[in-house]
Amino acid sequence: MYLTARTLLNYRVLQPKRTYVTTTKTPAINRVAMDSAANRLLNSHSTERYFIEYGGFRSNHLAHGVVALHRLGATEERIREFADHYSRRLEKPTGKTDVEAPIMSRQESAGYIGTESEYYRLVKFYGSLLDDLSSPDDLIKQEAPRLVKGMSGALLHGIIQLGYGQSIGNSRVVLEGLAYLHYSNIPINLSDEVMSAPLLRGEYNLLPEFEKLRINPEVHKVFRSVDSSVTDPEFYWPADNLRRNLQILLSTTEFVTVLLEAVNVVSFPYNSDSPVLEIACLLSDLITDTATHLYNTSAHINDFVLLHTVTAAWSFGQILRTITDLKQINLMVRSFLISLVAMYFAEGAPQPTRDAVLPAEVLQSKTWSEIRELAISDPSHDVHTIKLVQVCWDRFNNGGSPELYKSAALNATLYNPNNFYFHMRQDLPIEENN
After folding, report:
1. Residue 185 CB partners (closer than 8 Å, separation 6+)
2. pLDDT tens digits, residue range 254-282?
3. 336: which residues sit within 8 A by CB, 6+ positions away?
4. Are 363 and 402 in contact (CB under 8 A)?
5. For strand 53-54 and strand 58-59, is the pairing parallel, antiparallel, or unpaired?
6. What's the rounded Cα separation, in Å, for the pair 63 and 48?
7. How many beta carbons lie within 10 A of that of residue 177, not counting itself?
């Protein structure tokens, strides 16, 4: 069944009177001290030991998995087991680092934006900036707005690394995230003035605008112009080279212009007189809710790329909460929304044919404790399942729609062919809508 934004069951994000004053930078119970087991593992398994990429282009997710397991309440033994298992696929930084190289200047670092080179010197550069500041959050506040227009590089993994580092207060992972954002940057060719203009205020309408964009003939035209193989009227673009697709789209002026026009008519129910942190929290939550809705409704059950955008949206939200300048927040939100839409289209823009919320009997078939245990104890150690369930658990505990997020968590644990428990789905009382 096709589901529009108006029929989303109990989608709390659409309720105009919602307040966000209790939402903090990150849930207080999980912003842990630096002597925690999770932080010790992050430091011992950092990119100093394993490079940020492996296999030519794949991104290192080790830090994300460690933080996600910690936030789900996994034991130290289980987190270490995951780190040891995951690290087997990673690569040593042999030949990629020069410990004797001098620290870059700001001017020199600008020459390495998006060049996919000198990663370790960039880590050192951001480390030198941190030395002059009081906290990693201050460094994020200072540097993230300079880099976010290019966050689509490496499929948003720089922003994910940065967000997970911020959420646990780990300086090393924050430095790695900033360096990876710098290293992989694919900048959106729009001026800061255009990107930082005030966001519209009003009833939240991102989902309907998303659907308008999906069927926009101008987008069809761009797809045909950049790749002659795109002939399907639904313009499904096989995502066998997602990074290539994304780079082509974001370097196409016509496509970026269409995206900007779409983003500029999206309105948000915020009060411009509210504290900046409250506005940042509201925008962060709305974006994560929207990404989760797209993931749940996709014709491709448990679509990997859309799952990825959910964890990216949550990570982006952790970063946005550190920003205190409203114009920078505007710029960052526009940048993320353009990146989110570009990712969606680079994946082939799957149709939203499924309900955002699973049937009541399915939602009641597993408790949250059981869902968390499925993610934590999965013998396949699937890091994407772990992260998705962690985001859902986080949003469930911080004002997100219980039905929406429990549905997403069940999709990830019981409908994931990479997950050990996938075959259990045969026992679920649910009809798949294809």
Report:
1. 113, 114, 147, 150, 151, 153, 158
2. 889 989 999 999 999 999 899 999 999 99
3. 148, 151, 159, 287, 313, 316
4. no
5. antiparallel
6. 12
7. 32
